[in-house]
Protein backbone atom coordinates (compact mmCIF):
# COMPACT_ATOMS: atom_id res chain seq x y z
CA UNK A 1 0.00 0.00 0.00
CA UNK A 2 2.82 2.39 0.85
CA UNK A 3 4.54 1.67 -2.51
CA UNK A 4 1.26 2.16 -4.37
CA UNK A 5 0.63 5.49 -2.67
CA UNK A 6 4.17 6.65 -3.54
CA UNK A 7 3.72 5.75 -7.22
CA UNK A 8 0.33 7.41 -7.28
CA UNK A 9 1.63 10.54 -5.55
CA UNK A 10 4.75 10.95 -7.70
CA UNK A 11 3.35 9.58 -10.94
CA UNK A 12 4.60 6.56 -12.87
CA UNK A 13 5.80 8.59 -15.90
CA UNK A 14 8.07 10.74 -13.72
CA UNK A 15 9.52 7.67 -11.99
CA UNK A 16 10.24 6.02 -15.37
CA UNK A 17 11.88 9.18 -16.76
CA UNK A 18 13.98 9.60 -13.60
CA UNK A 19 15.37 6.07 -13.87
CA UNK A 20 15.86 6.54 -17.61
CA UNK A 21 18.04 9.60 -16.90
CA UNK A 22 19.98 7.63 -14.27
CA UNK A 23 20.43 4.90 -16.89
CA UNK A 24 21.79 7.44 -19.37
CA UNK A 25 24.39 8.56 -16.83
CA UNK A 26 25.39 4.92 -16.23
CA UNK A 27 25.65 4.16 -19.95
CA UNK A 28 27.51 7.42 -20.50
CA UNK A 29 30.17 6.43 -17.98
CA UNK A 30 31.01 3.36 -20.13
CA UNK A 31 31.20 5.14 -23.51
CA UNK A 32 33.34 8.10 -22.52
CA UNK A 33 30.82 10.84 -21.72
CA UNK A 34 32.19 13.52 -19.35
CA UNK A 35 29.71 12.93 -16.52
CA UNK A 36 30.85 15.92 -14.44
CA UNK A 37 30.30 18.27 -17.37
CA UNK A 38 26.97 16.67 -18.21
CA UNK A 39 25.70 16.91 -14.63
CA UNK A 40 26.65 20.59 -14.35
CA UNK A 41 25.11 21.18 -17.78
CA UNK A 42 21.81 19.78 -16.46
CA UNK A 43 21.99 22.07 -13.41
CA UNK A 44 22.84 25.08 -15.58
CA UNK A 45 19.97 24.40 -17.97
CA UNK A 46 17.67 24.04 -14.98
CA UNK A 47 18.65 27.50 -13.76
CA UNK A 48 18.32 28.98 -17.24
CA UNK A 49 14.81 27.66 -17.80
CA UNK A 50 13.24 27.44 -14.33
CA UNK A 51 11.74 30.96 -14.27
CA UNK A 52 10.32 30.44 -17.77
CA UNK A 53 8.54 27.33 -16.48
CA UNK A 54 7.51 29.21 -13.32
CA UNK A 55 5.76 31.79 -15.51
CA UNK A 56 3.20 29.14 -16.49
CA UNK A 57 1.69 28.97 -13.00
CA UNK A 58 -0.42 32.20 -12.87
CA UNK A 59 -2.29 31.52 -16.12
CA UNK A 60 -2.88 27.85 -15.28
CA UNK A 61 -4.18 28.71 -11.81
CA UNK A 62 -6.50 31.38 -13.25
CA UNK A 63 -8.04 28.94 -15.71
CA UNK A 64 -6.43 30.52 -18.78
CA UNK A 65 -4.64 27.29 -19.69
CA UNK A 66 -1.03 26.82 -20.68
CA UNK A 67 0.69 29.99 -21.81
CA UNK A 68 1.59 29.17 -25.41
CA UNK A 69 1.79 32.94 -25.95
CA UNK A 70 4.88 33.11 -23.74
CA UNK A 71 6.86 34.94 -26.51
CA UNK A 72 4.79 38.04 -25.68
CA UNK A 73 6.56 38.20 -22.32
CA UNK A 74 9.90 37.04 -23.71
CA UNK A 75 10.01 39.99 -26.09
CA UNK A 76 9.67 42.29 -23.08
CA UNK A 77 12.82 40.68 -21.67
CA UNK A 78 14.62 41.03 -25.01
CA UNK A 79 13.69 44.72 -25.17
CA UNK A 80 14.96 45.29 -21.63
CA UNK A 81 18.22 43.53 -22.53
CA UNK A 82 18.94 45.54 -25.70
CA UNK A 83 18.12 48.82 -23.94
CA UNK A 84 20.57 47.87 -21.19
CA UNK A 85 23.19 47.26 -23.87
CA UNK A 86 22.31 50.55 -25.55
CA UNK A 87 23.16 52.33 -22.29
CA UNK A 88 26.41 50.31 -22.03
CA UNK A 89 25.50 49.00 -18.58
CA UNK A 90 27.65 46.19 -17.22
CA UNK A 91 27.80 43.66 -14.39
CA UNK A 92 25.08 43.21 -11.78
CA UNK A 93 23.76 46.73 -12.43
CA UNK A 94 23.32 46.03 -16.14
CA UNK A 95 21.51 42.73 -15.76
CA UNK A 96 19.34 44.09 -12.94
CA UNK A 97 18.34 47.05 -15.12
CA UNK A 98 17.53 44.67 -17.98
CA UNK A 99 15.52 42.48 -15.59
CA UNK A 100 13.45 45.32 -14.14
CA UNK A 101 12.82 47.07 -17.46
CA UNK A 102 12.08 43.77 -19.17
CA UNK A 103 9.46 42.86 -16.55
CA UNK A 104 7.86 46.28 -16.99
CA UNK A 105 7.61 45.80 -20.76
CA UNK A 106 6.43 42.21 -20.20
CA UNK A 107 3.63 43.49 -17.95
CA UNK A 108 2.57 46.11 -20.53
CA UNK A 109 2.55 43.58 -23.36
CA UNK A 110 0.76 41.12 -21.06
CA UNK A 111 -2.01 43.65 -20.45
CA UNK A 112 -2.73 43.83 -24.21
CA UNK A 113 -2.42 40.04 -24.45
CA UNK A 114 -4.87 39.67 -21.54
CA UNK A 115 -7.45 41.86 -23.30
CA UNK A 116 -7.35 39.45 -26.23
CA UNK A 117 -7.62 36.31 -24.08
CA UNK A 118 -10.62 37.68 -22.18
CA UNK A 119 -12.46 37.83 -25.50
CA UNK A 120 -11.74 34.21 -26.46
CA UNK A 121 -12.55 32.29 -23.29
CA UNK A 122 -12.35 28.56 -23.83
CA UNK A 123 -9.91 28.82 -26.74
CA UNK A 124 -7.04 30.55 -24.93
CA UNK A 125 -4.31 28.04 -25.74
CA UNK A 126 -5.05 28.03 -29.48
CA UNK A 127 -5.34 31.79 -29.76
CA UNK A 128 -2.29 32.33 -27.53
CA UNK A 129 -0.08 30.41 -29.96
CA UNK A 130 -1.09 32.67 -32.83
CA UNK A 131 -0.76 35.80 -30.69
CA UNK A 132 2.79 34.81 -29.76
CA UNK A 133 3.84 34.10 -33.35
CA UNK A 134 2.16 37.28 -34.64
CA UNK A 135 3.81 39.45 -31.99
CA UNK A 136 7.22 38.03 -32.93
CA UNK A 137 6.60 38.94 -36.58
CA UNK A 138 5.50 42.45 -35.59
CA UNK A 139 8.56 43.00 -33.41
CA UNK A 140 10.85 41.81 -36.20
CA UNK A 141 9.93 45.06 -37.97
CA UNK A 142 10.68 47.15 -34.88
CA UNK A 143 14.07 45.47 -34.31
CA UNK A 144 15.07 46.83 -37.73
CA UNK A 145 13.63 50.35 -37.50
CA UNK A 146 14.23 51.33 -33.86
CA UNK A 147 17.17 53.77 -33.58
CA UNK A 148 19.73 51.62 -31.72
CA UNK A 149 23.30 52.93 -31.95
CA UNK A 150 25.52 50.55 -29.94
CA UNK A 151 28.05 49.22 -32.52
CA UNK A 152 28.02 45.79 -30.87
CA UNK A 153 24.22 45.57 -31.22
CA UNK A 154 23.53 46.93 -34.70
CA UNK A 155 24.33 45.38 -38.06
CA UNK A 156 27.75 46.27 -39.40
CA UNK A 157 26.94 47.37 -42.95
CA UNK A 158 25.01 50.57 -42.34
CA UNK A 159 24.56 50.64 -38.56
CA UNK A 160 20.79 50.14 -38.74
CA UNK A 161 18.80 47.25 -37.33
CA UNK A 162 19.84 44.86 -34.59
CA UNK A 163 22.06 41.87 -35.16
CA UNK A 164 20.55 38.39 -35.07
CA UNK A 165 22.80 37.49 -32.13
CA UNK A 166 24.32 40.06 -29.74
CA UNK A 167 27.19 39.06 -27.44
CA UNK A 168 27.01 39.92 -23.74
CA UNK A 169 30.68 39.15 -23.06
CA UNK A 170 31.64 42.79 -22.50
CA UNK A 171 28.48 43.60 -20.52
CA UNK A 172 26.76 41.20 -18.13
CA UNK A 173 27.45 37.66 -19.27
CA UNK A 174 26.90 35.30 -16.30
CA UNK A 175 26.58 38.28 -13.95
CA UNK A 176 24.02 36.47 -11.78
CA UNK A 177 25.48 33.01 -12.36
CA UNK A 178 28.86 33.98 -10.88
CA UNK A 179 27.38 35.18 -7.57
CA UNK A 180 28.71 32.58 -5.09
CA UNK A 181 29.45 30.47 -8.17
CA UNK A 182 31.64 27.39 -7.76
CA UNK A 183 34.28 26.77 -10.43
CA UNK A 184 35.52 23.24 -11.05
CA UNK A 185 38.52 22.16 -13.09
CA UNK A 186 37.97 19.77 -15.99
CA UNK A 187 40.07 17.14 -17.67
CA UNK A 188 39.77 19.06 -20.96
CA UNK A 189 42.98 19.95 -22.78
CA UNK A 190 41.56 23.44 -23.32
CA UNK A 191 41.91 24.13 -19.60
CA UNK A 192 38.39 25.51 -19.31
CA UNK A 193 36.49 25.48 -16.04
CA UNK A 194 32.94 24.44 -15.20
CA UNK A 195 30.75 26.85 -13.27
CA UNK A 196 28.01 25.80 -10.87
CA UNK A 197 25.73 28.88 -11.15
CA UNK A 198 24.70 29.23 -7.51
CA UNK A 199 23.61 32.86 -8.05
CA UNK A 200 21.17 31.81 -10.75
CA UNK A 201 19.60 29.30 -8.38
CA UNK A 202 19.26 32.03 -5.73
CA UNK A 203 17.48 34.32 -8.22
CA UNK A 204 15.07 31.51 -9.12
CA UNK A 205 14.46 30.78 -5.42
CA UNK A 206 13.57 34.44 -4.84
CA UNK A 207 11.08 34.48 -7.72
CA UNK A 208 9.61 31.12 -6.66
CA UNK A 209 9.14 32.38 -3.09
CA UNK A 210 7.45 35.56 -4.34
CA UNK A 211 5.05 33.48 -6.44
CA UNK A 212 4.39 31.26 -3.41
CA UNK A 213 3.62 34.34 -1.26
CA UNK A 214 1.36 35.77 -3.94
CA UNK A 215 -0.80 32.66 -4.05
CA UNK A 216 -1.10 32.78 -0.25
CA UNK A 217 -2.48 36.32 -0.53
CA UNK A 218 -6.10 37.32 -1.10
CA UNK A 219 -5.54 38.06 -4.79
CA UNK A 220 -3.75 34.76 -5.27
CA UNK A 221 -6.52 32.83 -3.54
CA UNK A 222 -9.07 34.61 -5.73
CA UNK A 223 -7.07 33.68 -8.82
CA UNK A 224 -7.07 30.02 -7.81
CA UNK A 225 -10.82 30.17 -7.14
CA UNK A 226 -11.47 31.66 -10.58
CA UNK A 227 -9.50 28.86 -12.19
CA UNK A 228 -11.20 26.14 -10.15
CA UNK A 229 -14.82 27.27 -10.48
CA UNK A 230 -15.59 30.51 -12.28
CA UNK A 231 -19.27 30.53 -11.30
CA UNK A 232 -18.50 30.03 -7.61
CA UNK A 233 -15.82 32.74 -7.73
CA UNK A 234 -18.26 35.17 -9.38
CA UNK A 235 -20.88 34.42 -6.73
CA UNK A 236 -18.26 35.13 -4.05
CA UNK A 237 -17.67 38.58 -5.52
CA UNK A 238 -14.57 37.98 -7.65
CA UNK A 239 -14.11 40.07 -10.79
CA UNK A 240 -13.36 37.33 -13.33
CA UNK A 241 -11.90 39.39 -16.17
CA UNK A 242 -9.68 41.49 -13.89
CA UNK A 243 -8.35 38.39 -12.17
CA UNK A 244 -7.60 36.70 -15.49
CA UNK A 245 -5.93 39.90 -16.69
CA UNK A 246 -3.70 39.96 -13.59
CA UNK A 247 -2.72 36.34 -14.21
CA UNK A 248 -1.69 37.07 -17.80
CA UNK A 249 0.29 40.16 -16.75
CA UNK A 250 2.12 38.19 -14.04
CA UNK A 251 2.86 35.35 -16.44
CA UNK A 252 4.31 37.69 -19.06
CA UNK A 253 6.35 39.65 -16.50
CA UNK A 254 7.83 36.38 -15.19
CA UNK A 255 8.48 35.29 -18.77
CA UNK A 256 10.41 38.52 -19.38
CA UNK A 257 12.47 37.91 -16.23
CA UNK A 258 13.12 34.34 -17.32
CA UNK A 259 14.35 35.55 -20.70
CA UNK A 260 16.90 37.91 -19.12
CA UNK A 261 18.14 35.14 -16.80
CA UNK A 262 18.42 32.80 -19.78
CA UNK A 263 20.36 35.41 -21.77
CA UNK A 264 22.88 36.24 -19.04
CA UNK A 265 23.64 32.54 -18.62
CA UNK A 266 23.78 31.83 -22.36
CA UNK A 267 25.99 34.86 -23.01
CA UNK A 268 24.04 36.16 -25.99
CA UNK A 269 20.81 38.01 -26.76
CA UNK A 270 19.11 36.23 -29.64
CA UNK A 271 16.78 38.44 -31.68
CA UNK A 272 14.06 38.17 -34.33
CA UNK A 273 12.51 34.66 -34.44
CA UNK A 274 14.57 33.28 -31.53
CA UNK A 275 11.70 33.19 -28.96
CA UNK A 276 9.31 31.47 -31.38
CA UNK A 277 9.52 28.02 -29.78
CA UNK A 278 10.50 28.90 -26.21
CA UNK A 279 6.96 28.22 -24.99
CA UNK A 280 6.93 24.54 -25.94
CA UNK A 281 9.80 23.34 -23.69
CA UNK A 282 8.33 25.34 -20.77
CA UNK A 283 4.89 23.80 -21.34
CA UNK A 284 6.41 20.33 -21.61
CA UNK A 285 8.42 20.80 -18.42
CA UNK A 286 5.54 21.91 -16.18
CA UNK A 287 3.27 19.15 -17.51
CA UNK A 288 6.01 16.60 -16.97
CA UNK A 289 6.32 17.89 -13.40
CA UNK A 290 2.73 16.86 -12.67
CA UNK A 291 0.73 19.99 -13.54
CA UNK A 292 -2.52 19.83 -15.46
CA UNK A 293 -4.09 22.53 -17.62
CA UNK A 294 -6.05 23.70 -14.56
CA UNK A 295 -3.67 23.25 -11.62
CA UNK A 296 0.06 23.86 -11.10
CA UNK A 297 2.44 24.62 -8.27
CA UNK A 298 6.13 25.27 -7.63
CA UNK A 299 6.82 21.58 -6.96
CA UNK A 300 5.68 20.85 -10.51
CA UNK A 301 8.13 23.48 -11.77
CA UNK A 302 11.08 22.00 -9.84
CA UNK A 303 10.43 18.36 -10.75
CA UNK A 304 9.41 19.06 -14.35
CA UNK A 305 12.32 21.35 -15.18
CA UNK A 306 14.90 18.97 -13.69
CA UNK A 307 13.47 15.92 -15.47
CA UNK A 308 12.91 17.69 -18.78
CA UNK A 309 16.34 19.32 -18.89
CA UNK A 310 17.92 16.08 -17.71
CA UNK A 311 16.45 14.03 -20.52
CA UNK A 312 16.93 16.83 -23.06
CA UNK A 313 20.61 17.14 -22.15
CA UNK A 314 21.64 13.54 -21.60
CA UNK A 315 19.81 11.76 -24.44
CA UNK A 316 21.54 13.64 -27.30
CA UNK A 317 24.89 13.55 -25.47
CA UNK A 318 24.85 9.78 -24.97
CA UNK A 319 23.49 8.96 -28.44
CA UNK A 320 25.89 11.35 -30.21
CA UNK A 321 28.83 9.82 -28.34
CA UNK A 322 27.66 6.29 -29.11
CA UNK A 323 27.03 6.67 -32.85
CA UNK A 324 29.52 9.51 -33.55
CA UNK A 325 26.88 11.53 -35.43
CA UNK A 326 25.37 14.83 -34.26
CA UNK A 327 21.58 14.44 -34.22
CA UNK A 328 21.04 16.50 -31.08
CA UNK A 329 18.64 19.05 -32.60
CA UNK A 330 16.42 16.34 -34.10
CA UNK A 331 16.33 14.51 -30.76
CA UNK A 332 15.49 17.72 -28.87
CA UNK A 333 12.51 18.34 -31.15
CA UNK A 334 11.28 14.76 -30.81
CA UNK A 335 11.67 14.75 -27.01
CA UNK A 336 10.15 18.20 -26.47
CA UNK A 337 7.09 17.71 -28.66
CA UNK A 338 6.70 14.07 -27.64
CA UNK A 339 6.55 15.00 -23.95
CA UNK A 340 3.99 17.74 -24.65
CA UNK A 341 1.84 15.30 -26.60
CA UNK A 342 2.10 12.67 -23.85
CA UNK A 343 1.42 15.09 -21.00
CA UNK A 344 -1.61 16.67 -22.66
CA UNK A 345 -3.23 13.24 -23.06
CA UNK A 346 -3.11 12.66 -19.30
CA UNK A 347 -6.15 13.75 -17.30
CA UNK A 348 -4.23 14.73 -14.17
CA UNK A 349 -0.79 16.00 -15.05
CA UNK A 350 0.59 12.82 -16.57
CA UNK A 351 -0.41 10.38 -13.81
Automatic annotation (TrEMBL):
Its main location: membrane. Keywords: Cell membrane, Membrane, Transmembrane, Transmembrane helix. Pfam families: BPD_transp_2 (PF02653). It is found in: Cell membrane. InterPro entries: ABC_transp_permease. One of its GO terms (molecular function) is transmembrane transporter activity. The chain crosses the membrane at residues 12-33, 64-85, 91-113, 125-146, 194-215, 244-262, 274-293, 300-323. The keyword Hydrolase does not apply. It is a multi-pass membrane protein. This is ABC transporter permease.
